[in-house]
Amino acid sequence: MTLRLPIASSALPSALPPSAEGVAVSSGELLKVGELAERTQKTVRALHLYEELGLLAPSERSKGGFRLYGPDAVLRVKWISRLQDMGFSLPDIREIVQRWAGADTAVSGMSRIRTIYREKLEDTERQLQRLEELKAELRASIAYLESCDECHPARLVTACPRCELHGCGAPELVAGLHSHKQP
By C-alpha distance, which of 67, 88, 89 is closest to 9? Predict the structure, then answer.
């Protein structure tokens, strides 16, 4: 069973302003799914999936049964993409929508979204710290490995983690190469 939420896409808090990235649609203009896909750089299948998950809804259907999307759909798809860029899965985004829609008041709904965004910010800051540590390790490893060009050609690779050229042990990203005994 597919969950369908009766939520206007313009009602959700947006991560982007309406004119974000030059994709604003003029007021009242309706887009076919292919046009929406082109403007948002998504596939038609992705847009249909968003609809199946209750994340996007066409404003109406044409006489021929084609989905027609209002101006707010471009922003909604960009909002979904931005959340995906932040690491949210589509089920996560559906849960965000459900939490927001399940709020009794606007204050409560915005509070729920603020909590989710704060948690994501904390997670992002932790990830950035890990990446900074990895960057430092990579720089140290590259500096260590750049001195390997000075090594005697007959030297065995097994001696590398204890190389006297450095006077200290190799960084973990280099030493780890030697921590496993080869069969």
Answer: 67
CATH number of 9-102: 1.10.1660.10
Q: Between 70 and 4, where is the model more confident?
A: 70
Backbone torsions φ then ψ of 2, nearest 5 degrees:
-90, 130
- If one counts every other C-beta atom within 10 angstroms of the C-beta of residue 15, the result is 16
**Sequence spans of domains, the chain:** 9-102, 104-183
User: What are the C-alpha distances in Å from 19 to residues 27, 64, 78, 127?
Assistant: 12, 30, 11, 30
Whether this model's pTM surpasses 0.85: no
Crossing angle for the helix pair 33-40 and 44-52, to the nearest 10 degrees: 110
The arithmetic mean of pLDDT across residues 172-182, rounded, is 70
- In angstroms, the CA 113 to CA 156 distance is 58
Question: Is pLDDT at 2 greater than 50 in this prediction?
Answer: no
